[in-house]
């Protein structure tokens, strides 16, 4: 099963919740069970105020339109992009907004990471830590700026003890490989505390940790 935790630094103050992060568990009775986790990162000055509305729209669109995990992410991000692009067409150049996104779609047997820059993730599997960020051209420009944004997808086969850490750019840029290894090597209860200690001096940022833990024993 998945353990999920989040935290934010807002003007130097630690908060447990942030408008940049959304968790959207599956609701309903269809066979395509999956949960969505979203971290939105402002990419231009003035974009932060759009983050809450944007991540909520992504979560709602994903569950409404998904035909697959990756298809649901694609459609949800394209819808969010259209909203930002519409705002930008009506605004002065200095008032344009844009955002990067990292999404985790977790099904019963598979997990997909979808990213549009700026987006950062650190994945620990089998004791090895890997940093994942968009490298394809279509995923390299932020939502609101690209002509045709398409997230870069990474399929993740996760087992008990594995971790996925989504990071805002402000946090990702100050954490070394050693820092990430220490954070992802900690227990799920201690990992975000370890992250905070290693990110001192960062004024704003957000992180979402997904950890695979053993299923609880069946009753009886």
Unreliable spans:
none
- Structural class per helix/strand content? alpha+beta
CATH-level-4 superfamily name = PPM-type phosphatase domain
* Physical arrangement of strands within the biggest beta sheet: 2-1-11-10-7-8
Strand content: 25-35%
How can the largest sheet be summarized?
6 strands, antiparallel
Name the average pLDDT: 91
- Per CATH, the class reads Alpha Beta
Integer-rounded radius of gyration? 17 Å
- Strand segment tally: 11
Q: What would CATH call the architecture? A: 4-Layer Sandwich
Task: Name the shape in a single word.
Answer: globular
* CATH topology descriptor: Phosphatase 2c, domain 1
Q: Would you mind describing this structure in some detail?
A:
Helix content is 28%, strand content 32%. By secondary structure, the protein is α+β, with helices and mostly antiparallel strands. The strands form 2 sheets. It has a 6-stranded antiparallel beta sheet. A 5-stranded antiparallel beta sheet has the order 3-4-5-6-9, with helices on one face. Helix 1 (51-65) packs across helix 2 (69-90) and helix 4 packs antiparallel against helix 5. It is globular and about 55 Å long. The model has no long low-confidence stretch (mean pLDDT 91).
